[in-house]
């Protein structure tokens, strides 16, 4: 495979693509799936504040030379077929899209493309990928330490953490696209001072801000993925909200891990930002403190690999009261994916290290992205010390955990002087009471 | 939905269906998928020692009156479309198949069906279901206690066990059909007396005998499944081998549960025995000891529900040495699924109790089926006390865990005087060394 290539920065004839703070510049060209005006689910590409219908768009001259396999895959309703085409063919597709939307595009191409663009603001997005398998990791040492301290003050970090990229199988069926309402789950809750649990609506509903990596080309069962090839298996990245019911979790999770505390729903952003677009923002993984063990050889990456992603992530909260008062969402925290202890490449290699077959469209969550500072804690569990220190929202409200009507909004972007901004859009979800009534 | 109906016992014109010890009598009619002579993957039905091509078989007169949805679903390569047809339509299909294979069938029907039968012994089976999501439970209290005793002698059973049907998300992509070779996984192994783990081939490879339940009709996201409806969501049952790498597991599993110790492979039997065929073998769940808490109301079933299955399960082992000497497999243990502490109905209701959407084709493993007696321990971990008491195989060999060349064979069947035998066939897997050599 070739090394990902980025484009020389250029202007687009789509004016909004060059606006300051625009997530979807000509260098990004993220993929999505959406419901077209005729009601069919199509693949799309983001440019400025518009979405381009890729299914119909392959008719444009700039895309006409693409291999048939790409054209066929572009007509699907999920990205999976594109994902298994491999980095070189995706590069070819992106080159065609870049030519099509660059200011230098032919009049003919612009004329063909223009009617295939529609405003993002009124688009109904669909899940972009048919996610066969979902695995959630625990790659932030700050998150693992913060959470561990709440549950095991004497041993916040377990002995395996610095050797094993800890992860668990998640539930694929309940992954939904941004904007889908989150029904408050019910489950077994047990107070420390009672003998038996009760089945009731969750009282400690939380978010976790994560990045999700989608697998492109997979590996056959029984074979592994060497660390130096791992990045090539990553098709692209999205924002991910690993909604968590803390009270259900603390009672159910021994000895086999989180289950119903997570499987009620997981939200992903509509946009899959191609790995290639993120290449300029790849940085070396932070050096481990001198007392930490080096990764085992099968997980050991050279610094040149630049396996970390410099992605800024933000959590915003819009409560029902804020909405009623016409207030904007309040920013709670901001973190960065480069602070993860384990890179996505290490997660991929570890995942396949037992011969487990990764498949095109599989989703790998990073685990909650928390930094060292409290202002970068990626969950309310950490921010409010398991509910013991309510968070003041500035409008007179406070929160320990999420309430019905709360909307959680994640944003993510790469930004550095001299480089084009690469944004991830938003990942949103609003809490609604359980079906059959009974707010928590 | 109607209550499952069983057939009045009858003879079949397929002689082998009435042979003593036959798994696939006229009352069973289990489903499978197989590669036909022309190389296409077809759905099939087991009768005696033969498999019937269901795709072509819908042309038989006895099946001609079936609704179009059943005929279309019968032409698929996986059972999923049939699974979502619901119990009534599956009952209609089974009535048609029963009429077709009964001794009373018309000469015409027999003439049409006969060329569509082929010997099971030479059939190449495929995975019968496109398994979207796989969840593995831990429903045997004997297994949980045995394993707990090895790892936590002072507290074998955790406080949540008698309240929560404990389960975790498993890996769907690596589920394979019986007969697929099992590549010995590698992973991080850490001896108690070393500071750091090594990455090496697993040395404590084990099996776990389980029953798997396939979901038929599912539930929408955010909605639950009341316990009194849970059984109706179960399409059928299979044998399941939850291969486990014990040394990988003991190092990786804290705090998020088993991951790579399981995901290298899971084996299912080719045959899915319809829930309807098992109705005569449904029995009341064993009464809980008086000191045990009653299940919470949402998991509470009446005795009339007969939510347990009286299924006998056996583990057999065929080593390379036995094979070379022409010896038959050796029976290691025998257990019964009715000894489970939690019923499949309770697992289904618990799984959906947070609103998690179960989907047609989802697989639910029971967890290792162990009884109170040592002769019914469902894993080598239990049988050999984590390898401390080697098992003598009778031919001069012994085992602590599985060795390369060992073939593990599960059998399962329902049998009671006055009732037709309902068998599950076999679930087999042979251990092979890691790719790139390096036997453990």
Description:
- The structure is a homodimer of 440-residue chains.
- Chain A has 440 residues and is an alpha+beta fold.
- Chain A has 11 helices and 26 strands.
- Chain A has helices at 54-57, 68-74, 80-83, 87-101, 107-113, 141-151, 246-252, 260-263, 320-324, 344-351, 380-383, and strands at 31-35, 41-47, 50-53, 117-119, 124-126, 134-137, 167-169, 175-177, 182-183, 186-189, 198-201, 205-206, 209-215, 234-241, 244-245, 266-268, 273-274, 282-283, 308-309, 312-318, 330-336, 363-365, 391-392, 398-399, 407-414, 422-432.
- In chain A, strands 6, 7, 8, 13, 14, 16, 17 and 22 form an 8-stranded mixed β-sheet that branches.
- In chain A, strand 10 (186-189) and strand 11 form a beta hairpin.
- Chains A and B meet through strand 7, strand 10, helix 7 and helix 8 of A and strand 7, strand 10, helix 8 and helix 9 of B.
Summary keywords:
homodimer; 440 residues; alpha+beta
Average pLDDT taken over every residue of chain A: 95
The helicity of chain A comes to 10-25%
* Unreliably modeled segments of chain A: 1-5
The greatest interface here is: A-B, 64 and 64 residues
Shape of chain A: globular
Compute the CA-based radius of gyration of chain A: 22 Å
Question: What's the multimeric state?
Answer: homodimer
Structural class of chain A: alpha+beta
Strand-residue proportion of chain A: 25-35%
Please give the alpha-carbon distance between the first and last residues of chain A: 52 Å
| Helix count from the secondary structure assignment of chain A | 11
Largest sheet of chain A: 8 strands, mixed
Please provide the count of β strands of chain A: 26
């Amino acid at each position: 495979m070739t090394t990902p290539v980025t484009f020389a920065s250029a202007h687009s004839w789509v004016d909004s693509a060059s606006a300051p703070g625009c997530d979807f510049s000509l260098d990004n060209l993220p993929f999505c799936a959406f419901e077209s005006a005729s009601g069919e689910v199509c693949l799309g590409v983001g440019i400025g504040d518009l979405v381009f219908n890729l299914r119909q768009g392959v008719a444009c001259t700039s895309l006409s030379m693409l291999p048939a396999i790409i054209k066929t895959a572009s007509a699907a309703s999920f990205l999976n077929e594109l994902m298994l085409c491999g980095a070189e063919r995706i590069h070819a597709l992106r080159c065609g899209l870049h030519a099509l939307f660059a200011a230098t595009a032919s009049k003919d191409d612009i004329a063909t493309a223009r009617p295939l663009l529609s405003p993002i603001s009124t688009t109904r997005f669909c899940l972009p990928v048919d996610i066969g398998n979902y695995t959630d990791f625990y790659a932030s040492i700050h998150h693992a330490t913060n959470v561990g301290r709440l549950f095991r003050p004497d041993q916040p970090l377990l002995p395996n953490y610095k050797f094993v990229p800890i992860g668990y199988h998640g539930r694929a069926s309940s992954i939904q696209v941004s904007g889908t309402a989150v029904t408050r789950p019910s489950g077994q809750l047990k107070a420390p001072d009672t003998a038996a649990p009760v089945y009731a609506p969750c009282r400690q509903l939380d978010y976790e801000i994560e990045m999700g990596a989608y697998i492109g080309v997979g590996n056959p069962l029984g074979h592994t993925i060497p660390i130096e090839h791992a990045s090539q298996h990553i098709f692209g990245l999205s924002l991910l909200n690993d909604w968590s019911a803390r009270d259900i979790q603390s009672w159910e999770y021994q000895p086999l891990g989180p289950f119903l505390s997570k499987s009620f729903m997981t939200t992903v952003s509509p946009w899959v930002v191609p790995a290639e677009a993120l290449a300029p923002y790849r940085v070396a993984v932070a050096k481990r403190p001198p007392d930490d063990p080096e990764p085992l050889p099968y997980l050991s990456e050279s610094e040149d690999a630049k396996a970390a992603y410099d992605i800024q992530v933000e959590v915003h909260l819009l409560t029902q009261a804020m909405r009623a008062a016409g207030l904007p969402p309040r920013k709670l925290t901001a973190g960065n994916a480069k602070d993860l202890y384990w890179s996505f490449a290490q997660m991929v290699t570890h995942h396949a290290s037992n011969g487990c077959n990764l498949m095109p469209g599989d989703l790998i969550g990073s685990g909650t992205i928390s930094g060292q500072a409290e202002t970068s804690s990626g969950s309310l569990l950490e921010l409010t010390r398991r509910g013991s220190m309510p968070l003041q929202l500035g409008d007179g409200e406070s929160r320990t955990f999420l309430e019905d009507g709360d909307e959680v909004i994640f944003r993510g972007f790469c930004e550095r002087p001299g480089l084009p901004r690469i944004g991830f859009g938003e990942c949103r979800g609003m809490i609604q009471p359980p079906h059959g009534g009974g707010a928590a």
